[in-house]
Design goal:
alpha/beta; Uracil-DNA Glycosylase, subunit E; 2 domains; 11 helices; disordered N terminus; binds iron/sulfur cluster
Length: about 270
């Protein structure tokens, strides 16, 4: 898929705004350095070696099937790279116009065991450039880690990748739906997670189209996006868990949060049920 910035790079004209043009060059440089493109170059070299006998010696480990396999893998990676670069430059709504940093997802983008979906990026997330890095994020990441989830088998993201004003989730339903359809929905289709951990009521609302979290928390809900069936586990937001920490019900709430993540770890085969 060709996005605006690719057109800008391929056909840089005199009319291009220098600011935008610099951005596009920066993106292309990033793209060139990204491991997906590095992978592509290796694949192209392998393919050249394989289909040009006589020109170069063929190492025995390069079978044609291996080359096909690598090409498919690199195509999947490339889809995500294209997607990510376009997402990073999004200015489609007023939130993006106020804050100029889109927080990209963090983790494995190819068929992860779990995709963790929070609500929106906060100030710490914008500073670091990763979702869930503040106090609540540390609790979430520590709990995920405890049950076998690592960067290599999970992907952490938000319904809204930009930071809303005053850290408050926007009230404009249409704005969020547009953002969701444009980015998160597509990201689910591209990355094909086995499970989705829905953090808080907002991710339940926009992914499952359901209101409230109390009744469905801790129960697997099957969700279908463009023929892709994914089991979703709604759970409490870690900032809610932290807020309740020193209250009477704090222990129970924390236990519920841990149990929900544990259920996903068991279902995805990372740990055994005891
Ligand atoms: S909130 Fe969503 S639609 Fe708006 S600028 Fe950020 S990424 Fe784009």
């Amino acid at each position: 898929m060709l996005y605006d910035r690719d057109v800008l790079y391929i056909f840089p004209s005199a009319n291009v705004n220098p600011k935008t043009y610099d951005r596009s060059l920066d993106q292309v440089w990033k793209k060139f350095l990204s491991y997906e493109y590095f992978l592509n170059i290796i694949m192209a070299t392998f393919l050249f070696i394989r289909i040009s006998p006589g020109i170069l010696p063929i190492p025995s480990f390069i079978s044609l099937n291996f080359v096909y396999f690598c090409i498919i893998i690199s195509m999947i990676f490339n889809n995500y790279t294209e997607f990510n670069l376009a997402k990073e430059q999004c200015k489609s709504c007023e939130i993006g116009k106020i804050y100029n940093r889109v927080v990209l997802s963090d983790g494995n983008t190819m068929n992860p065991n779990v995709m963790v979906v929070g609500e929106a990026a906060g100030s710490s997330e914008v500073e670091v450039g990763k979702p869930f890095v503040g106090k609540a994020g540390k609790l979430l990441r520590a709990t995920l880690n405890e049950f076998g989830f690592r960067k290599s088998n999970s992907l952490i993201t938000n319904v809204i990748p930009c930071r809303p004003q005053d850290n408050k989730f926007p009230m404009d339903n249409q704005l969020i739906l547009n953002c969701f359809n444009k980015w998160l929905r597509q990201e689910i289709i591209i990355t094909k997670p086995k499970f989705i951990l829905l953090i808080g009521a907002k991710s339940v609302k926009y992914i499952l189209n359901m209101n409230g979290i109390t009744k469905i928390r801790g129960k697997f809900v099957e969700h279908e996006i463009e023929g892709l069936k994914i089991m979703c586990m709604p759970t409490l937001h870690p900032s809610y868990v932290l807020r309740k920490e020193y209250m009477e019900e704090g222990k129970i709430i924390k236990q519920q949060f841990r149990d929900d993540i544990k259920k996903v770890a068991i279902a995805s085969g990372l740990i055994e049920e005891k």
